[in-house]
Amino acid sequence: MSLAHRLFVVLILEVAYVVARRVVLHSLPWSSFEAEAISTVLRVITAGACWYLFRPLIMSRSSNQAALRSPLLAVGLLLFLSIPVLIGHYVLSATVAWMFAFASVFVAIKEEFLFRGIVQNLLGQKLGSLKAILLTSVVFTVWHIGVWSFTPWVFSQIFVASVILGTVYIYGGSMVVVVVIHAIYDAMFSFTPWIPQPLPENFGFLPLLAALLVVSYWARSRGRASHQNHQCT
C-alpha cells in the first residue's frame, strides 16, 4: 500500500473517530463509565491502525539516552507536570478518577502515534524539525476543538504541551518517553485537586511557559552538541 493510501486510511479512521466520540459525548455523561469505555475502544482501534500502517515511521527515531538523562530536561518536565498540581480542580470521585487515569494511557498512545509518530515525522522530512513541531502542534490543537471548552488557557496549554512533547521526541528520540509524559500529565489532572486551594487556571501560563523555555534551551544545547560531534567526526 502506498504512502498516500495509508494516509487516506488513517484520515478516514480519524474522521470516524472524531464523529463517533462527539456522538458519545453528546449522548452520555462525559464522566460515565460507558462513555469512557467506548472512547477507549475507539482509541485502541485507531492507534492499532496507525501502528499497523506506519510502525517503521513511528519507531524510526533512535532513543538518545544521554539527552533524556539531562538534568535540564528533568527540570523542564517537572515544571510541565507541576501544572496539574497547581491549577487542577476536577474533584472527581475515586472511581471516575482512576477510570480517567487508566484511559490516559490509551489517549497518550493514540495521540502520540498519530501526531508525533506520523504527522510530525512526515512533516519533518519536508519542512525540518522546527516547522514540523509547530505545524503539528497547530493541527493537534485544532483536533481538540469540540472536546474542551474553547478558552485561551485551554488551547494555549494544548498547543504548548504539543510543542514540548514534539521537542522531546525530536531530540530525545523516544516514542515511549513522550507517551509516558503525556499519560502522566493527563492522569495527574484526574486526581486533582492536589492542593487544598488550586490556583486560577491562568496561573498555569507561568509554569507552562517556563517549561517551554527550559525544554527549548535543552533542545538547543542538544543541537549544538550534535553539531559539534558531527564536526569532530
* Alpha plus pi helix count: 9
Overall morphology:
globular
Average residue-wise pLDDT = 92
Low-confidence blocks of residues? none
Largest sheet: number of strands, sense, barrel closure: none
For this structure, the quaternary state is single chain
Helical content, roughly?
over 70%
Beta-strand content estimate: under 5%
Class inferred from helices and paired strands:
mainly alpha
Number of strand elements: 0
- The tally of domains stands at 1
H/E order of the elements? Answer: HHHHHHHHH
Brief summary:
By secondary structure, the chain is mainly alpha-helical. It is 80% helix and 0% strand. The protein has one domain (58-232).
